[in-house]
Specification:
Blueprint: E1 4-6, H1 10-20, H2 26-44, E2 50-56, E3 61-67, E4 72-78, H3 81-91, E5 96-104, E6 111-117, E7 126-130, E8 133-134, H4 138-148, E9 154-158, E10 161-162, H5 164-173, E11 179-181, E12 183-184, E13 187-188, E14 194-195, H6 201-206
Parallel strand pairs: 1-11, 4-5, 4-7, 7-9, 8-10, 9-11, 10-12
Antiparallel strand pairs: 2-3, 5-6, 13-14
Helix pairs in contact: 1-2, 2-3
Bound molecules: uracil (URA).
Length: 209
């Protein structure tokens, strides 16, 4: 079974609580998501491969380690993944970016793909899939399934919030994909929303409701 990394750092939890509040403005929701994504990037990149480069300090030449950002791909599940993507890119600016367009069929709650664009040489890259909410797990499962066709070196999944149903579904479908999240909430409701959750992440981020 894949590992679930619960990121319970006080800064992460504080910002998440501010985002959950229904009074948070679109502006502050977006800013907080961006800040949270930077903090989560710190955790998800903890075991990233590094390479040595030669540099010159003001004192002498030396060799020192840097992250090979080009080997990393952030894959954003549209549209809500965009908010996490921006924050992650601000701390790993060399990363490549892929997009998967999926929408939830409102009746069946299954994921329907409408867009898929990835960098080249995916088989040489580590992939971090980002989507703020792991709810039914249908979108995450479909996204990972599609990405596996390209045989990347590894796949991780990062979300802000999930619930026991979402974790169980993704783990059952993809036991090799670790999940990084700031919280595991109580449950899903009948419409596939997380309780207590934070509402519709896309609508809150883009002010579309
Ligand atoms: N997507 C959201 O934006 N919110 C939820 O609670 C579940 C899925």
């Amino acid at each position: 079974m894949s590992k679930v990394h619960l990121i319970d750092h006080p800064l992460v939890q504080h910002k998440l609580t501010l985002m959950r509040n229904k009074e948070a403005s679109t502006n502050s929701f977006r800013r907080l998501l961006n800040e949270l994504a930077m903090l989560m990037a710190y955790e998800v990149t903890r075991d990233m491969a590094m390479q040595e480069v030669e540099i010159e300090t003001p004192m002498e030449k030396t060799r020192a380690r840097v992250i090979d950002g080009k080997k990393l791909v952030f894959v954003s599940i549209l549209r809500a993944g965009t908010g996490i993507l921006d924050g992650m890119l601000s701390v790993v600016p060399g990363a490549r970016v892929g997009h998967i367009g999926l929408y939830r069929d409102p009746k069946t709650l299954t994921a329907v793909e409408y867009y898929f664009k990835m960098p080249q040489d995916m088989h040489e890259r580590d992939v971090v899939v980002v989507d703020p909410m792991l709810a039914t797990g249908n979108s995450a499962i479909a996204a990972v399934e599609r990405l596996k066709e390209l045989r990347p070196k590894s796949i991780k999944f990062v979300c802000l919030l999930t619930c026991p149903e979402g974790v169980a579904a993704l783990q059952a479908a993809h036991p090799d994909v670790p999940i990084y999240t700031a919280a595991i909430d109580r449950q899903l409701n009948d419409h596939g929303y997380i309780l207590p959750g934070l509402g519709d992440a896309g609508d809150r981020m883009f002010g579309t409701k």
